[in-house]
Amino acid sequence: MSNNKKNSQKFNKKDSTVNRDCQSFESKVTQKSKIKIPKEIRKALNIKPGNSVWFEMDKHNEVRVRKVPTAEDWAELIRDFPTENVKFDENGHYDPKASPNFDEWMKNG
């Protein structure tokens, strides 16, 4: 068991407000106020050198770290979306038979 996991368990036992469904990891703040994101989190979020992260803080001062999606992340997200060319007339109308996926999306979201 790694030191991070040992520290996580000790921390969880002391703090009854910690969500039991999450893991805790410890990282020290350097002289220049930098922190190292633990390996387990970098791996889970696919964070690589040069990526950006968001820090969110709620009203209880609990902090959440999320990866800012990269262009590659967005490309992967929409990779399997159907595509079709939609032609609009001068009034903004389209032919539902020529663009069935677009028509379905317009009607049902």
TrEMBL record:
Ranges annotated as biased composition (Polar residues): 19-29
Name of one Pfam family that matches: MazE_antitoxin
Positions of the UniProt region annotated as Disordered: 1-29, 88-109
GO MF annotations, alphabetized: DNA binding
UniProt domain SpoVT-AbrB: residue ranges: 27-73
Biased composition (Low complexity): 1-10
Xref: InterPro entries: SpoVT-AbrB_dom, SpoVT-AbrB_sf
Name under which the protein is recorded: AbrB family transcriptional regulator
Species whose genome carries this gene: Companilactobacillus mishanensis
